[in-house]
Amino acid sequence: MHPGPDRRTVLAAAGTTAAAVALGGALDLFDTPPAPPAHGAGGAGTPRTTHAYAAEPAAPSAPSSPSAPPAAAGPPHGGTTLAAVSVPTGDGPYRRLTAGAPWKRVVRTELARADRRRTDRRTPLAGFVQFTDLHLVDVQHPLRYEYLRAQTASAWRPQEALSVAGAVSLVERVNALAGGPATGMPLSFVITTGDNTDNNSRAELEWFLTAMSGGRITPNTGDARLYEGVQDSGLRTYWQPDSALRDADKERGFPRIEGFLRAALRGVTSPGLALPWYATVGNHDALPGGCYASANRFLGEFAVGGRKLLELPEAEGARMWKAVRKGLDPKGEHFAELLRAQKRRMRSVTPDPARAPVTPEAYVRALREPRWRGKGPRGHGYTENHLDRGQLHYAFRVSDDVMGFSLDTTRRDGHYEGQVSDRQLRWLERQLARHRDSYALIFSHHTSTTTPEGGDKLLSLLKDTPHVVGWINGHSHRNRITPHGSLWEISTASHIDFPQLARTVELVDNNDGTLSLLTTLIESAAPSRTDFTDLSQTGLAALYRELSYNAPGARRDLAGSPGDRNVELLLRKP
User: Does residue 15 sit in helix, strand or coil?
Assistant: First the structure.
């Protein structure tokens, strides 16, 4: 395989592939869809060598072709962390945010040397955006276990009621990007790498699909006139934004914001992505609580019912969290027993069938509904064949020279850790052999270190396949980039925990025997500064970010090191 400067790239292919995508996207589980149209407007402990990137190169000229658009004047950094990054300012336990200094690009050369002349002769091959771990949250859902807050900060976050506004603001940011931040090349699509929702809920799935494809979202379930979650419970454990109660978070400096809950449940309008988009499934998309087998009938009935547990004795909470963390209750049987035993402690809430768990079949059917097609492709990677086979992996054409492979690493038998079956590995091996003349990008939710079953086999397969250049994933909620012999693993932070980032990825041929993967982190379009009196859609998206920074127990290392953020990743051409 020797793709070179004389081959068609995503720039030249933009015009010829747009019509093909409009006709239907993915073909089936074993076939591949045409490339999406380009868009020009709108590990720990691993030794690494990093060098400060002295200056951004000018955007390279496209290969000579009558269909190639003119090259941009320079890489468009606006709206990315190459231009500015939200950072805390001031003193005190609650910190406000402001626009801070940008993150420079770092060149990593563990897998190949960097010729200083490479920036003058690059050929763009592909450019796209990765979303991961959006965690759109129904904050009133009966199966949520906020009462484990003392055991883990991820059980409940003060910012969760604003997750939809934050996701829509991220869509707005992508729509405003003028092109790839590193090269100026057109961006072709967005792919999510799982945990798009939080509670495996039908309502959350509809919110996600509307945010991505466009429309009006009302992030409320139960009684449309009421909020029935923990934030108006009068319990000091949780931030009570509308109340004068001196709760534990207000003692840490959190503000009182009258009208917060009413505004959080108000309708939000999404423009929808101006790019085609693809979906990858995560454990929170497929499993109640992100860790319990969906076959548990009691949990399904409880999800749509009229009771919600708000608090739990510390000893009981510690036992439950140990079971979740160690995967001791994959079927949710002990969780169901706990809920039955705690009935007297529960709050009455309005039942709602929209909170029902989503089966793999329902997940695929929803993505294939015409109302959520957006810019396509229909099904966003999933086809009618996925309904029959119950397998949620697929292949798709990224550009003329690049293939994408989306894997399903969730365990249907329960547990938040990942799994890759032998059957899926054999499918991937066949697909990689079939497309050995194209570079390969692998997409999954779980990382190499969070997939104890089959993860080693998967990584071994990828390392033994020279044309695999990148494995792109999420799950850990942390930026981390790891070299694996002949490819790079790119793990991206979540969009619910600070610093709430997504990532652009650009693949280029340096025409000197090397390739580069150039990744750039982006924040949502919301301003860094907040105004507690601004409860507009944009104001709530800004507050979403600031609350996430101040969330008690929030980790401060999720942004990763400079070598995990805005980077150029060199690797040898196969």
Answer: helix
